[in-house]
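I am still getting used to backbone structure tokens and would like to learn alongside you. Label the sequence line and the structure token line clearly, so we can match residues to local backbone shapes. Would you write everything just below, so we can both look at the same thing?
***
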Amino acid sequence: MQSTIRLPGRAEAAPDVLTITDLARYLQVSKSSLYKLAQEGKVPGQKVGKHWRFRRETIDRWLDHGTGPAEWTTDDA
């Protein structure tokens, strides 16, 4: 299932795996800020060779929870 990235004047289907450019557009932040956040582990992503990749589902969950990956749980206990 694909969501839509909504930008002024246009809409694009967001892929399941985002590049740094895709994610910068999705989050509406600069790529340089995003690189820094990813390198510091503040945004959940995976480096593949020289390139960063981000799962849209994980990013959405990260945004919803406002927490880091270590604090994500599905347990209600």
Residues 3-71 form a domain with the Arc Repressor Mutant, subunit A fold (CATH 1.10.10). The CA atoms of residues 11 and 66 lie 25 Å apart. Residues 69-77 have pLDDT under 50 and may be disordered. The radius of gyration is 13 Å.
